[in-house]
Each structure stands twice: as structure tokens, then as C-alpha cells.
């Protein structure tokens, strides 16, 4: 690895870390603080307890999602497939999610590799949630002599170059660290991603 490439990779990693911190701060503000403020206002205005209970339920679900996004539980013990299923389950209340697997080889992933794959999927689903008016998500994992991740949604997606700032640079950095390749296919009819990891 050349000295310049090592510096670029380190800078990209730091940028990705800062992006994730910023995203978490935004999620915490939008998903939790906003709802807790609504609960406080509701109590002051004596809004029916059923409505307050619904907001509390949303806070619990959002907290569970944020907690999982920070660090997936049982990362070391879980298979990549199990981790992906955990990730998907958090979003099932808002989307129709179709998850397909075609696993023909047993690949031993390190914790770091599994975490990169989970973060990539989280980033893709976060982009769908925040930037696309989507109702359906399709995810396919194919494992042969390499790992293929196919991701698509049916939402409205901005055309390049504007949409490249929507966290996709973080995905590129992680795929690079996995020595893989990634292609994004945005369109007005949805968003599609193809990732190949050797």
C-alpha cells in the first residue's frame, strides 16, 4: 500500500466516522427528542393517554433501531445472514421488505467484515427512509465464489450528482475496505445498488 493511498484511506475513514456521528445526532434529534417533546406537550395539554402511549411506542422502536445501528448485538456469534435479518426487522413496520438469499458457500467473516456489511445495508436503508418516498425494498445476498449484494427500492431518487452526498460515500469507503466494487443506479422509478465482494 502506497503512503499516499494510506493517507487517503485514513482520511476517508475519518470522514465516514464523522458522517455516521452526524447521522446519529440527526436521528436522535428527529426520532427521539422530537417525540419526547411531543409527549411533554401532550401531558401539559392533557391529550388522551392512548395518543401519548402511541408516541412512546414509536420512541421505543426508534431507540431500538438507533441502538442496533450503533453496534449490532451478538456480532461475533451471529452469521452475516442473521445480522442482516436483524437489520431488516427494524424497518419492517414501515416497508414491504423482500429478502432473498442464495448461499452456496460457507464464508467465514471476521467481525470487522460483518460490521462493514451491516453498516452498508444500514446506510442503504437509511437513505431509502430519509430520501425516497418508497414503500418496498428488495434485498438479495448471493454467495458463490464472491458475495453479491443487490439492493433496490421503489422510491423517488434524485439524479446524480446531487444524490451522491446522501451517505453513499460512506458505502464506497466500506466497500473499498472490503476490497470490493459498488455501482449505484438512481432513477425516478427507484434506486438500485450492486455490490460485489471477493
Strand content: 15-25%
Alpha-beta classification: alpha+beta
Average pLDDT, all residues = 78
Shape: globular
Question: Which terms would index this structure?
Answer:
5 helices, globular, 53% helix, alpha+beta, five-stranded mixed beta sheet
Quick overview:
This protein has 198 residues and is of the alpha+beta class. The protein is built from five helices and five strands, in the order αααβαββαββ. A five-stranded mixed sheet has the order 1-2-3-5-4, with helices on one face.
What does this structure look like?
- With 198 residues, the protein is α+β, with helices and mostly antiparallel strands.
- Helix content is 53%, strand content 19%.
- Strands 1-2-3-5-4 form a 5-stranded mixed β-sheet, with helices on one face.
- A hairpin with a 2-residue loop joins strand 4 and strand 5 (190-197).
- Helix 1 crosses helix 5 and helix 4 runs antiparallel to helix 5 (168-177).
- The two termini are 18 Å apart.
Write the layout of secondary structure elements.
Blueprint: H1 3-44, H2 49-70, H3 80-89, E1 96-103, H4 111-131, E2 136-143, E3 147-153, H5 168-177, E4 181-187, E5 190-197
